[in-house]
Design goal:
Layout lengths: L9 E7 L5 E4 L2 E7 L1 H19 L4 E8 L2 E2 L8 E12 L2 E10 L2 E14 H8 L3
Antiparallel strand pairs: 1-6, 2-3, 4-8, 5-8, 6-7, 7-8
């Protein structure tokens, strides 16, 4: 793992909410609003941007925790801007907090944790699945 970042460093990602990002389940379409599960996916991606630069060729990141406090809606077509901030790095574990903002409103906050592990270890873990 490359020691490229420290607590306080930030990454940014923006998503324009697409129809496929809105709440739908097996029972059908719910509403034209950014679904919590899609928001969680994009929050994790924003935090993963650190890992993409930190991992070495023989390593991979794996998520171990994700929290989402979904505070306010974002309609389809809206732009949501994510900011991830490293809060803690310990050994091979990176903890980030994140915030998602739409039209000046904070729509979500949370924490995301990833570990950077050797690919060989992950291959052994998942070999029996």
């Amino acid at each position: 793992m490359l020691p490229l970042f420290k607590p306080g460093d930030t990454k940014h990602f923006s998503r324009t909410v697409r129809p496929e990002d809105c709440a739908s389940f097996d029972s059908g379409h719910v509403h034209p609003v950014y679904a919590t599960f899609a928001l969680a996916r994009d929050a994790e991606w924003c935090c993963r941007l650190f890992v993409l630069e930190m991992k070495e060729a023989q390593e991979e990141g794996i998520g171990t925790r994700l929290t989402v406090e979904h505070l306010s809606p974002a309609l389809a077509g809206s732009q949501v801007d994510f900011t991830a901030v490293i809060t803690h790095i310990q050994h091979h574990e990176i903890t980030c907090s994140y915030e998602a903002v739409c039209n000046g409103r904070v729509i979500a906050t949370g924490i995301q944790v990833q570990k950077i592990l050797p690919k060989a270890k992950l291959d052994r873990l998942f070999a029996g699945l």
